Amino acid sequence: MSGNRQLSAAGGYRELEEKARKVRQDVIRLLLRQGKGYVGGALSAVDILTALYFRVLHVDPERPHDPERDRFVLSKGHAAVALYATLAERGFFSLEDLLARSPEGIPSFPDMRAIPGIDMSTGIPGQGLAVAVGMALGAKRRKSGVRVFVLLGDGELQDGAVWEAALAAGHFRLNNLVAIVDRNRLQHGGDTEEVVALEPIVAKWESFRWSVIPVDGHSFEELIPALENVGYAQKPTLILARTVKGKGISFMENESRWHAEVLTREDALRALEELGVNVQEIPLEL
Amino acid sequence: MSRGSASVQGFAEAVVGLAQTYPNLILLDADRAAHSFLVPFRELYPDRFINVGVAEATMVGMAAGLATTGFIPVAITLAAHASQRAFPFIAQTIAVPRLNAKIVGLEGSVLGNNAGAPRQAFFDLAVMRVLPHMTVVVPADAHEAYRATQALVAYDGPAYLRLSSWDVPAVTDRSDEFVIGRWKLLREGSDLLFVAAGALVYTALESARRLAEVGIETAVLNASTLKPLDEGSLAEWACRAGAAVTLEDHTTVGGLGGAVAEFLSRECPIPLLRLGAPEVPETAQEEILDPDRVAETSREFLERRRDKHPSGR
């Protein structure tokens, strides 16, 4: 990478960090509106989603159904609010419109029929990778340049369907497919290695004929080049993104209870304050 | 009547023709290609035939991905595997998001299938029928399977096509029109109604002939679409006959009999006998396949009804 690009990229990362902070604020606002949800795993995925939607994915909010757009599948569907906040920030729809819906109108899992810009509905763990494999294989068969990205939770790797699809992706040499594992190490029941151990993750995916790139999942400097590493080897890419559950909110970080803990108004205001929001301006009904 | 009319053959013939009409038609196979009926398609269109191996769930997920990228995927596996291994994927990646993918269940029959209960598809229709947006089709013979395949590929939405390898004499004609959700009346009658699906449409017709010999005029409906039901035809002929018998090579719980019972209990509550496989289907074959036994069971059913209500209907 040339010195100039490095410099401009560094400047861009500050802009991305600002985007990610805004997305985190919106995650908290959406969860408060929903009155439920999965905050920890949404916050750990925010930087990955920001990198994808603001730097990597070839998508146009004005043409959400463009057949030549890159695709994204949120296999860890419980982080839906992070996707909604990112899509809104990217201009697919207005976050205020979404916040104006009833809590039931903001699905806790991505629904492609209910929210613009979502490429696939996901609710059951372990299903997204197989769908992404189909998208990537379809792009190959059409000789199209479409790239497919899919984000998995680390706890999700305990689901056997993930490995069935991983086997297929390696077999079909889908070098237009990138899977990202949000490796925050905490699932609902605690540390993944204590619940059902996943390590060694790198060796597992490599043995399934994937290229594996471990990165700091909160560093745009590491995430973006890794996400762009598509189409070179005759292999799909697995990005093992080390992340922090609850990233960005001091009292949520690395606490497994924030996997699915319901936010109180007090929690939310404290979180928003940490994210630089003037909470005096937050309307009472939020 | 000619033999050699298993519905799977009509499907195999139809997809080869449809591949020309629909350049985006793509077949996915969970390693059933050894079945000779898929060979012609695979040889003519190798780029549009994907063997995913013994991975039925992944195959269905891939079909969903292909559907969102402009293909018309047709995912083929055994009906037992579709309903028991791939079902969560069919539900959540195809039916709920209403994607344009077709699931084909082979050997969807307890007839001619000596695999035993662990491997037979005898409740696939029941589980497919509960899925939102799902169209469920059971052709009676090869001719109907040919037309049904054409109709389902032309239809934009999720569908389950249940096929059988059981050879039956043809009961429909290749030139018959097939409309999703529309049942055909194959025989008129005002004493009793047979509602039959799949290979048992033939049995229903034969049984109706035997009943006619003893003075019971039996109407026969070919219920080739299980979902959506042809409510108009069902209500009309059930009310006219005043008693009905359903016939299916599937458990009597939740399939055709279940669907008909649900509807008639609301629209036309008449006595209904559901013939099919018991919950474990080992002994089902003769009871539902032999026209003499079906006719006799149906006659007894009508008589018991007259005993209960001697004044008639």
From TrEMBL, chain A:
Cofactor(s) in the UniProt record: thiamine diphosphate
Keywords carried by this UniProt record: Thiamine pyrophosphate
Domain Transketolase N-terminal positions: 30-279
CDD domains in UniProt: TPP_TK
Cross-referenced Pfam families: Transketolase_N
InterPro entries in alphabetical order: THDP-binding, Transketolase_N
Transmembrane segments: none
Keyword set includes Ribonucleoprotein: no
Xref: PANTHER family: TRANSKETOLASE N-TERMINAL SECTION-RELATED
Family: Belongs to the transketolase family.
Protein name: Transketolase
TrEMBL record, chain B:
Thylakoid is among the record's keywords: no
Cofactor(s), names only, from the UniProt record: thiamine diphosphate
Annotated Transketolase-like pyrimidine-binding domain residues: 5-170
Sorted UniProt keywords: Thiamine pyrophosphate
Region feature Disordered, mapped onto this chain: 283-313
InterPro entries registered for this protein in UniProt: PDH/Transketolase (IPR051157), THDP-binding (IPR029061), Transketo_C/PFOR_II (IPR009014), Transketolase-like_Pyr-bd (IPR005475), Transketolase_C (IPR033248)
Matches recorded under SUPFAM superfamilies: Thiamin diphosphate-binding fold (THDP-binding), TK C-terminal domain-like
Entries under CDD domains matching the protein: TPP_PYR_DXS_TK_like (cd07033)
Keyword ATP-binding on entry: no
Biased composition (Basic and acidic residues): 290-305
Top-level division of the source organism's lineage: Bacteria
Recorded family membership: Belongs to the transketolase family.
Name of the molecule in the record: Transketolase subunit B
Species, as recorded: Brockia lithotrophica
